[in-house]
Fold this protein.
Amino acid sequence: MKTGLGYRGCRANAAAPDPTVTLDLGSSHPIETVFLIPAQREFLEDSGIFPKRFTIEVSNRADFAQRTRV
């Protein structure tokens, strides 16, 4: 992974779980807007710079036992 290209999650194989990113904000905060910014292309023909689908889940519990899909 090259520095500066952004996060690129992928499955090691088809049976692997979906890639995830978890952010701990340290305390509860109101969230009004979420911006998703695609990673920068590594080369011109690179088509994998943005997920085709994604889910955003929020929780105030570390284990996400109670969560809300946004």
Notes: Residues 34 and 57 are 12 Å apart (CA to CA). The chain has one domain: 1-70.
